[in-house]
Batch of 2 targets.
Target 1
Amino acid sequence: MCAASVENGVPGADGPDSFRLGAATLPLRLGPVGQLLMNFLAAMNGAGEDADDVYKLALSALREHGDEAIIEIARLENCCRMGDYPTRWGLIHAAAQLHHAAAMPLFRSVVLTPIPPEASANPHDFSTVAEETILGTTAVDGAAKLARDGNKAAVEALFDFLAVPSISIKRAAVQGLLSVQQGESLRGRIEQRLCPEDRFLLDIKPLDVRKATQIDDPEAQLSDSGRAANKPTTPDLPDRTATSNLGAAGRLSSDGPSIDYRGRDPSNFKRED
Amino acid sequence: MATCSIPAIPNKDVSGDNLYGPRICWQPFIDWAWGAHGFKKSYWDDGFGYDNVCNNNLPLSRTLSGIWLLNYSADDYWNEQWSNNILHWGRRYVRNQIDDLRAKCGDGSAIATAFSGFLGIGRRVELYLGFFYSKNVPGRAETLVHESRHLGGKSHNANFPAWSAYGPGKSGADSSWGYKGAWMYGALYLWWFYADGRRTTVALRESARQRANFVIDNAFATHPGFTIA
């Protein structure tokens, strides 16, 4: 959001604000491989009964152009606004899904390019370093996938990533190395490459969420007004409404927005539940 | 009054808005979500989407998408008992805590702020441009969980550790996973969404895993000692 335009914006200031939409999408020139990439991004995020088949077809079509696809991913990632983190993440994730050795230079570049200094005034709220780091760990995981397939260049890249000054990159690289065949035998070499204060990363355990500490009594963690709140529960999705009356929603408000169906093609709003 | 705009919208396939946007375009859901979270018309019109609720370029649709995800991502979403996991009761916690939800510009990068009702500032949650356009749909749901935890009375209680990307020594961290603060709530929600989220995509679940792992690594004064498998 570094290029957002705000006049007089102060979090917490009283009174409503006003919003104007800018250009809806970035204009991009796409060749045939770029179009296949866009199809893959759409398929990667599609739903419905045929989503798996559509995804596999799109992935297969893109894999046929593996080297070119990676170049196109790198080009588009470079074209993105720096602050367009969702799109940049999707492109790097797509490179990882390709499972192609040609992606290694891209992964190396994403991980080893120094992260720019924090651009946010309030990193707790929004951190550019956090967003860049998440792009990096996604690339590390892409390299780790290749390493698990026996790609030696990927294994060496993971060792190089241990020198990046980011605890998350190092953690992802350690986990990646330990996950390759006979990864446990790499512990000594990993330890040598980590500075002493980072060696605790070797003790970090991958965990299933069901084994993590949960919140025992969430109701007790509500504010008094939250505990007293008695709001209707979510409306049932149409497929459940047909068989159950549980969870029926109440109409709480008469001043909410209404869908304007005029001129709208209902088929564009098919829901995939 | 502030006026704001954005230069371009991130790819809506990748952000999840092309998946969830059509789902929120459903009048019973809109009516319920509007009342249950205390949306106020005066804070959602004038460009924020009140007059065009199904337009997934606009803040209102993008907020409702986060709420939809929060409400329907458990397989048996109708089971929201507190004894279940946060994928089930997270929605209940959020709607019980949030009574006043407002769209605002912020400073251009800000995501959200919860005001607990002290110092003469009314109790509410404000959502800013960063929430609508820098976060994907699971990230918006996580933000609502995080801010609701603050409204539940839990502030951050520690400084970020020496290794944290949020800024070593700065305030805003939680002391530990066991403190069960806002960072833990948000990360645990994302973790469950990754592990067992339904009516979504593998890509969005994977994005949740990456973000949750980042929080686990950087937001606690003492590293929890685990990572998401």
Target 2
Amino acid sequence: MSNAQTFQFFNRGPSPAVRLVFFVVLSLLLMFVDARYRYLESARSTLSMLVTPIQQLATMPGRLWHQAGEFFVTQGGLVEENSNLRQQHDRDAALLSQLQSLQQENQHMRNLLTLPQRSEFSAQSAEILYAERDIFKRKLLIGKGADSQVKIGQVVMDDMGIVGQITRVYPWMSEVTLITEKDHAVPVQLVRNGLRTIVFGAGDTSQLSLRYMPVSSDIQNGDVLVTSGIDGVYPPGIPVAKVVKIERDAAYPFARITCLPLAGVDRNRQLLILSDLPPLPAMPVAELPPGTGKDAKTGGNE
Amino acid sequence: MSYLSPSTPEIQRPVSNIFIVISVLIALFLNALPWEGWWLALRPDFVALVMLYWCTHTPLRVGIGLSWTTGMLADVADASLFGQHALAYTLLAFGGVVLHRRLQMFDLRQQTTQVLGIFALTYGVYALVHWQVNGYMMWSYLLGCLTSTLLWAPLSIMFMAMRRARMERE
């Protein structure tokens, strides 16, 4: 509001209303292109280089606090933790040797039955940078990106189970959509009886729900859900969630089933990114009756 | 409480561009702090606050275009849809530019009620876009509108004091 304003009276450019219309239309256009076609990912990763320094700076206080906590760890605590880890390691080693013999046995039997082999996957670990500052979303940013060959669609897990899926890759970091994100779907299977279903994120809480399960379906409290692997995105047999609440109301066609994720979706700092998952064999579209070809299209919400 | 009186000529001093840029960067920084859970719902939108302040106090230099650009940066920072923040901040800037004469006539208490309307529009549009694209609402998001409004008076007083301090040094 300097004095110059009065002299610039005739030199103000377009009026606010014209500018408003221009930028509103531009925003709407960008939103449409971004939501429908996702053409703008390269522009986003370029612009992210401007914003990333500010974000890194903003996570500094938390990281310093974390590091300060590590600095003041006592020797006694370390010794105790070490012995706990050693015990855990011995137990795991025993289980692992069993697993190897079981794997060989499984391979042998699959050979006998001429079933395709279960293939293995490799994993790289990454640290959580920060959770996204948007109340509508359940997403994380982790410190590995395109420079570490992270790709969209890869699965992220911790030592307990599935955490989420990579949905966006920046040069040095990538975005993980948690399984608790609204409408994020994971195809799962009950461990107890092999029932196949899909678990959805609830969005507003750290919970998951099983939709479209008939009231009569055989599900109990405490049932563990593992990935079924039929989607080709999630490898089979990884724990996802545990059933905690079942409401069977005869007035509704479906039971309301609430599950809690097994992985520390909101807790851990270190995560594993799975890579080199084998692609699904091509689907023989022509031989399927119409309508069944869409069944496998359930892996993730992107 | 001289601060609550209508603006005196002495606060209408020119502001350096560096001051504006730094204030916007600090606002982006504050938005990016690790807010979680209810704190995230209650977090005021510092970028919107600062943009609205500059749109009402220096409408010839900070206007709709600059707000839109800042909105694009906020979109990248929040990984929201490209243009979602930009659209909201465009409307915010329009409100600020159109109402800036009226706001400068008012004292801080009257300004706050006007500002609430502008913020409500901004937050409403952002939530509306989200609702249209993703199909659900989170009402707790709109709490941020109230906290942002409550911060208007402290922010105005702070900027006024900082600008006055600059004047005295020069």
